[in-house]
Amino acid sequence: MTGSIPQQFIDDLLSRVDIIDVVNRRVPLKRAGTEYKACCPFHDEKTPSFTVSQSKQFYHCFGCGAHGTAIGFLMDYDGLSFPDAIEDLADSLGLAVPREGFSDTGPDKTPIYEILEQAAQYFSQALRDHPNAPQAIDYLRNRGLSGEIANRYRVGYAPPGWDNLLRALDTHAGSRRLLRDAGLISEPEGKCYDRFRNRIMFPILDSRGRVTGFGGRVIDDNDSPKYLNSPETPVFHKGKELYGLYEARRYNRQLRSLLVVEGYMDVVALSQFEVNNAVATLGTATTDDHLEKLFRTAAEVTFCFDGDRAGREAAWKALVTTLPHLRDGRQARFMFLPDGEDPDSLVRGIGRDGFINTINDAQGVSDFLFGHLTKQVDMRTLDGRAHLVNLVKPYLETLPGGVFRSMMEQRLGELSGSRRLGIQRTEKRPPPRRKGLLSQPGTMRPVHRAIALLLQHPQLAQLPDLPHTWQQAPDKGSRILCKLLETLRDNPNLTTAPLVEHWQEPEIRRHLGNLAAVDLQLSGDQEDQFRGSLENLSRVARKTAFTDIRNTLRPSDLTEEEKANLRALYDIKSRN
Asked: Is the whole model's pTM more than 0.85, yes or no?
């Protein structure tokens, strides 16, 4: 993929994203006055020095100097590139990232999305008016599904027959190829027929609400397979998709937790009981892609499994996959259903409140991991406890460094009675930036102070009759200050975060980030301080100009205009 991301999109993105939500999903924050605090995730400390400002949409650590916007935080914490950080934030809002000068050597996927949307509309219409639809409607009613919930999840119906969808959508040259590329038809041995027949249909949506594929459930449980998914296509990858995630985001303003269940009907049935945070992994084991998508959406994930042997084996596989993703601030739990129950039947039996209580009582990672492995050893003997250390070590070594890993190691030490666990330490992520002289207000140059004031109080750019003679200065700082003022006058609603990210050059963004985070220790009105800084800059600019003219030319070499300018500079200098 080529093409730069338009600056206007970055500005709009940062104005819509709340850095508090972005950081809090990864590092739990506590309110401290008008800001939020936590122990810095980029260096070891016991007293919180990491602050996040909601008004500035900016974070700063007074210990190691790490600072930045929501984009910068994702780059530092998740190790993303600048474009990937923007993609991540845009994905959380269901936005597509535009590209200037975009070109893609691959095929255009838009027609595939369009044919999938047409198929979703066809299935939805078939549920309403196809002659065989009553059996599908009866099935949904017997499962207690209301029309409102069916509409929310765009539930549809694929009628019996070999070519209903094919005849409805094969309307022009190339449409059959699109149906094949979208996974809607099968063509074994030269024949062509609908992939989904006589099934309840569940459209699978991406983060932008586009249909990427379908899941179909049989109406008669004697038919097989019970669930049938779309095959792998250019827009559908089963190991990356989560059914119901788009709806969970849409119907939860603040999505703090997600419940991972097995099937589509579980998600839809739970929503009927106002449990609107359930998603399904489309019948596959939980993958790394699933987990990154889950934890980007919510800080807490609960996996729901059958309580039988197969369910516990699946839960253990999910635990192993989850461990490397458990940075501080993320939490995973494991909920096991009673024999013979699924989420749908359980919530009907004990009600919503009882179901929520069951989720809250789910096992944490520590209890599940140690409970599972201690059953494999004799904890009454030294040999057994030593064996436990050897069993647990490989799993703890996959955990990211941090408080949670330290507590897990402590728990293993308590269980085994050993302080020498021999667990390999992962290298700690180095602090991305360090504070320097710019963080000392008393040593700041006038231009740096003026830039810092403007970054931290962007409304100052709208003040009338600001000093302007400083703009003649040729230094880089003055040019940046001019550009900042120009940007803010053209975009008066910009806040600190998008203002910093307005610069493409990483080095300038780094310096602006320093200045946006510095404590200016203001002793008076910020407007007076800003005017005073510009006046100081003007005096410096005049003095520099006077010195340059005097040292460069002899009086006999000056033009009349230059002599007039020099006399004016003398007059100003004598008055000051």
From this structure: no
